[in-house]
Amino acid sequence: MHSGKRFGALEFAIWTRRSIYVLAILAAIPTTLYYCGWKFVSFPWQPIAIMGTAVAFIVGFKNNASYSRLWEARQIYGSIINNSRSFGYILRDSLSEKDPAKVKEMFLRHYAWLTALRFQLREPRAWENMNTVQFDEYSKKYDIPERLSKLDDELRNYLSDDELQYILSKKNRATQLTAMQSRELTEAYANGKINDFQWTQINQQLIKFTDDQGKAERIKNFPYPRNFSSITTYLLLLFIVFVPFGLLKEFDKLGEGTLLEGFTIWFNIPFSLLVTWCFHTLDSVGEASVNPFEGSPNDVPITQISRTIEIDMRDMLDESDLPSAITPKNNIVL
Asked: How far is CA 330 from CA 139, 187, 200, 253, 297, in A?
């Protein structure tokens, strides 16, 4: 997540510089041909303007859908924060007097669940954008914690050796950690350490964690529909190619009767570049937000949130050696 006031203008220009080069070349080719006497390459601008309206609608639709996915992802992790705090104090107040060691063990297992979940959500998918040159280059400005460490090393901080080996043998580690919590809770209930009401309350929190995990996995594993994504790309490409051809006559007529007559045609390059850059960059912004867990600077900071939850829950147990909070690097926090 970008934690500054805004992306800088230079930062934005560098991020989109490759598209600027391509768009400038696409504008320069028809302009040069027209100046050299190939007047027939000019197209009427009206059909292109109609196409631009359609492109604006579909790019706007895509960006709206991208923001909805991002905002839902943030709501999911907001729910995980609240549910984790509730789980912590309910478990502590229900079981601390009879079995403080089990409370500590279940707290540690919850930190392990948060860790396993964020590692699962950072796993790459074929439709994500972090492997493209534009996004990969920008990612060098910050660190993605899940790419700098291994899951088994992280889980070793919270689980016993036997539990660690058991969890690493499973496909969905986060799910199995919640299942282990449920089993521990059932044993405590069977041994009379908690009553019916306490068991129900704590078990409801585990169910909420399962719901939150499922919602996050739904966003992670279901991409923005490929049919909408593909048609947006194709229409945008057609619009970008045709814009410079549609503005040729307009800029050529601009200088009639003035000292610039015959030279205003070259204005077609910067103005076509500006128009096409706006549309292309709007589409790129949507692409930057459509997969909210992949690790881009526009994603939900699930690592920071997980660390915040761990600090809060350790504080509930009056621990003094709290882990440090995760701070932004170059205004980026993940």
From this structure: 11, 47, 45, 48, 10
